[in-house]
Amino acid sequence: MDSQFETEYAAKELKKEHFRFKEWLIERIIQVSGIITIITVVLIFIFLLRYACPTFKENSLSSLLLGRSWYPLSGTFGMLPLILGSFMVTIGAVVVGVPIGVGAAIYIGEIAPNRVREILKPTVEVLAAIPSVVIGFLGMVLLAPFLQNLLKLPTGLTALAGSIMLAFMAMPTIISISEDALHAVPQDYRAGSLAMGATKWQTISRVVVPAARSGILAACMLGIGRAIGETMTVLMVTGNAAVIPHTYLQPVRTMTATIAAEMGETAQGSSQFYSLFAVGLVLFLITFIINLVADLALQKSRR
Amino acid sequence: MNPKVSESVAFNMLRACSFVVVAPVLLVLYFLISNGWTAMTWNFFTQMPRNGMSEGGILSPIIGTLYLMAGTAIVSLPLGLLSAIYLSEYAKPGPLMRLIRLAIVNLAGVPSIVYGLFGYAIFVLLVMHVECILAGALTLSIMVLPVIIVAAEEALKTVPQSFREASLALGATKWQTVRRVVIPNALPGIITGGILGLSRAAGETAPILFTVAAFYMPNLPKSVFDKAMCLPYHLYIISTQVPDAPPRIQWGTALTLLLIVLGMNIIAAIIRMQYRRKRAW
User: Fold this and answer.
1) Does the CB of B54 have a partner CB in chain A at under 8 Å?
2) Rounded to two decimals, what is the model's pTM?
């Protein structure tokens, strides 16, 4: 009797032990998954650096970053045309997209009647969902010919077309994060201003928007990050001429488009192969800084 | 200027901004549907591309994209959910937590082509030595991870603290509480985030360029170690690299891709609405 009891007890203890082990194991798995994002960021950096390294050995940093010509066939890898191309298209997108995006966010968040808002918000979500290759396709077949006819250009595939398309791709980010920032402004601010006799527009322009400014700034930074990293759309609509751009009405080639267009055709281990990783590394660092600044601005706006 | 007048000028300008955002979206949908509609036949979806992709349908790109999405779901959903559970249930505020948040923000902002380079370097060059579905799915999984983590974490956090306390008070362990109480109550939100993440993966081209996408394949892929044709890459190919591809096929492919992605977004929105209505607390 006693011994039977003891075996049962021992079995129960064993089960408990097993159970505790399972719980211990699952908690370790969860912990590791928790830091998977950190691991990934570090791995991305390490791998880009590893494959970009040979380029830095063969060329000086200044000749890479400031070199004025990108001719992979003759082994000249100056990234300046690509960097300028990226910046030019992105600045164009900012000039078009930020005022319109922030304006739309103010309208949606502060002014629009509920019924209108319920149409506007899902439409912006649809815009965010359209794949970049579809937007690129539409830019090629609709926008580029339109611009070509309108401005009498030799080709419609220009920096301008890229800027317009990128502006629209950055808008959902700009609009939704600006709108969150406006939403976070306490209702008392509005009530106080209106009670002082200010009009609704005075309240919005002098109280609400200034109060939300770091959030709106973060929205614009994240929009810029999206624009500079966008690949397929610019690959399809900017015409891809790797020369230093002078006007918005000529073809340009961005860093992203260069990687996309050339990596598939280059031999693994060639100097072009390593240079493209160097371009990727530069791109990664640029977006890393932009996101960092945007995140700081967001933290500030939450406080 | 009279405040009333400046107000009406300003409001009209802001209204115009919204119009400028919304009108092109509607225009785009109109063009895609009106031009792509004629291509939407049974044969278009059930035939392989033929004759240098200038004839036939888009069966193989559709299948390839479905395989990729399945692979991405298998990898990214459990990993994203576990990571979100850590952030919402286990992690304590501190430097590690801040670092994880920073990593998530940065991953969300890494350009898709950089994911492509990374996936190519680690999965193709280092591990598998071939461009294949597995490498593409892993690359896409990493890309959508931030989306899934953020959505799942938000869903977990909406579960009231009292639910957890009640479960713990009954003698359940922490993991039992998470598994039997927290996750079931957060499930609709988790599923919504997962679908949105996968819809992003379905439409992305840059991450699959060097990891899986095939220019043309006469047959369907047989295993996860095969290359595959994919819908977004196929659209890129037939609109830039195949000069004699008929517009009907181009528009049809674009519309199909859009319908898949939008369809998933709409399903996610419906689940979210149902859930809000049903939520008991």
Assistant:
1) no
2) 0.92
Q: What are phi and psi of B99, to 5 degrees?
A: -65, -40
Tokens for B135?
């490498």
Are B148 and B193 in contact, with CB atoms under 8 Å apart?
Answer: yes
- Give contacts of B175 with chain A, Cβ < 8 Å: 23, 26-27
pLDDT tens for each residue of B57-111: 899 999 999 999 999 999 999 999 999 999 999 999 999 999 999 999 999 999 9
pLDDT digits (tens, 9 = 90+) for A174-207: 999 999 999 999 999 999 999 999 999 999 999 9
Amino acid found at B105: V
Question: Cβ of B118 under 8 Å from any chain A Cβ?
Answer: yes
Residue B6 lies in a domain: no
- Residues 16-35 in B contacting A (C-alpha not used; CB under 8 Å): 16-18, 20-22, 24-26, 28-29, 31-32
A46 touches chain B (CB under 8 A): no
Whether B33 is in a domain gets the answer no
Contact A127 B82 (CB under 8 A): no
User: Searching chain A, which residue's CA lies closest to the CA of residue B22?
Assistant: A123
- State how far the Cα of B139 lies from the Cα of B112, in Å rounded to an integer: 10
- Asked if residues A159 and A248 have their Cβ atoms less than 8 Å apart, the reply is yes
Determine the Cα–Cα distance for residues A278 and B222; give it in Å rounded to an integer.
35
For residue B184, being part of any structural domain is answered with yes
Mean pLDDT over A67-75 rounds to 85
Q: pLDDT tens-digit profile of B208-238?
A: 999 998 889 888 999 899 999 999 999 999 9
Instruction: Look at A111 and B205 and tell me if their CB atoms are within 8 Å.
Output: no
Rg (chain A; Cα; Å): 26
Would you call A211 exposed, middle or buried from its count of C-beta atoms within 10 A (0-12, 13-18, 19+)? middle
Report CB contact under 8 Å: A107, B146.
no
A103: pLDDT strictly greater than 70: yes
Give me the helices (H) in chain B, please: 3-36, 42-46, 59-85, 95-109, 112-119, 133-158, 161-169, 174-177, 183-203, 231-240, 247-278
Does a structural domain hold residue B207? yes
Q: Terminus-to-terminus CA distance in chain A, angstroms?
A: 68
CATH number at residue B178: 1.10.3720.10
User: Which segments of chain A does DSSP mark as H helices, in order?
Assistant: 2-34, 36-58, 61-66, 80-106, 114-129, 132-138, 144-151, 159-183, 187-195, 200-203, 209-211, 213-229, 232-237, 255-262, 271-302
> Which pLDDT belongs to residue A66?
86
What's the mean pLDDT in A220-232?
Answer: 93
Domain range holding B103? 40-278
Name the phi and psi angles at B205, rounded to 5.
Answer: -110, -45
> Residue B52: in which H helix or E strand, if any?
none
Q: Give me the residue from A30, A37, A175 closest to B100, CB to CB.
A: A37
Q: How many domains does chain B have?
A: 1
B26·A123 Cβ contact <8 A:
yes
Q: Which two tokens stand for residue B20?
A: 């400028």
pLDDT value of residue B243: 81
- For residue B256, give the nearest of B72, B55, B59 by alpha carbon: B59
B22 contacts A123? CB cut-off 8 A: yes
Strand partners, A77: A70
Residue B195 near residue B224, CB atoms below 8 Å: no
